TrEMBL record:
Residue ranges of the TM segments: none
Superkingdom in the source lineage: Eukaryota
Record-annotated START domain positions: 31-207
Protein name as annotated: BY PROTMAP: gi|472587061|gb|EMS24560.1| Lipid-binding START containing protein [Rhodosporidium toruloides NP11] gi|647394754|emb|CDR35988.1| RHTO0S01e11650g1_1 [Rhodosporidium toruloides]
Cellular component terms (Gene Ontology): cytoplasm
GO MF terms held by the record: lipid binding
Length: 332
């Protein structure tokens, strides 16, 4: 059986809590514990590419250690970095060289969803790894773009949606956690991962994974410096909820070689309009780097209208309930 890949992943009773709340809460507790654990519990691996690296050995001799990477991103806010650099698969391909593909299996609300991810193999020696997991984004209560934010992911079991696939080894993700902490106008980014790759893998390759994984913080930072951020969803100031059903987002894969390859930088926000006609949200784009020449905006489907302020914000307003629509942003 193939892996479920819904065009509209929002569950029927969206917004709702996930059935995997217990796994999510355990992963969050583990992540917070590791964030606060004293330095003497970590083995300091020094700095590389302006990223401070740490590791904790696993009791299993050949297992991947728990790893931590931390870096500072200049002139960045947590909302843009989470939504426009770290989360979208199209952007992740730039900063995570092990990442091959990923998509939502089910979306429970604006901040939590089940997902399926494939990580590349290593030649003929090591099969690709895949992960079935749950993710939740934690935002500040006041919605401030500069407040502290977190991403927490962990493994779940969903055999009907994502049975084991031939030629892939199912990995077990205890936690993949990001914390984005404002430091003045800058952003401290901390990334902690504990994963069991399962199956056989040469020790040298285990060591490589342990080194490369926490360096993703620095590579995400460098992607932000070079490209800026992809568009991301933001509710209007003072608004904490909406009846709009956010289905999923897509961003076309960035080029492997920015100096020679053209890239359309197409962003797509797929939604279903809710019961409250007139609901609004914003799509925030990077007018300085990603779209320095401006954007073109179009709507596929019905039920929404858009207005671009020309300064980095597309305002979207619903005009009819129960309609499927996709807002598309491309460079002019």
């Amino acid at each position: 059986m193939s892996v479920h890949k819904p065009q509209k992943p929002a569950v029927a009773d969206y917004p709702t809590s996930t059935a995997h709340q217990a796994e999510l809460e355990a992963a969050r507790a583990f992540f917070l514990k590791e964030l606060e654990s004293p330095e003497e519990e970590w083995e300091d691996q020094g700095e590389r590419e302006d990223v401070h690296l740490w590791s904790k050995k696993d009791p299993e001799v050949h297992a991947v250690p728990t790893v931590k990477g931390e870096t500072l991103v200049k002139n960045a806010n947590s909302e843009a970095f989470l939504g426009g650099v770290v989360q979208l698969p199209g952007m992740r391909k730039l900063w995570d060289q092990r990442f091959e593909s990923g998509h939502m299996l089910a979306r429970y609300d604006r901040t939590s969803f089940a997902f399926y991810t494939v990580m590349k193999g290593m030649g003929w020696l090591v099969y690709p790894r895949d992960i079935v997991g749950i993710q939740k984004n934690y935002h500040p209560e006041d919605g401030s773009e500069k407040g502290e934010r977190m991403i927490v992911q962990t493994t779940i079991e969903e055999k009907e949606w994502a049975p084991e696939q031939k030629g892939k080894t199912r990995a077990t993700l205890t936690v993949s956690g990001w914390r984005f902490t404002p430091v003045g106008d800058d952003l401290k980014v901390t990334y902690i991962v504990k994963i069991a790759l399962n199956g056989s893998m040469p020790i040298a390759m285990v060591s490589m994974v342990a080194t490369e994984t926490p360096l993703c913080t620095g590579r995400a930072r460098d992607v932000y410096y070079q490209y800026g951020h992809a568009p991301y969803i933001r509710l209007p100031s003072g608004s904490s909820s909406t009846s709009i059903i956010f289905q999923t987002e897509y961003f076309s894969d960035p080029p492997a070689n920015p100096e020679t390859d053209e890239h359309v930088r197409e962003y797509r926000c797929v939604l279903t309009t809710g019961s409250q006609v007139g609901d609004e949200f914003e799509l925030v784009y990077d007018a300085k780097r990603m779209y320095d020449g401006g954007v073109s905006v179009r709507v596929e489907g019905e039920g929404v209208e858009c207005e671009d302020d020309g300064k980095g914000v597309v305002r979207v307003k619903t005009t009819k309930s129960g309609e499927d629509a996709t807002v598309v942003i491309t460079p002019k």
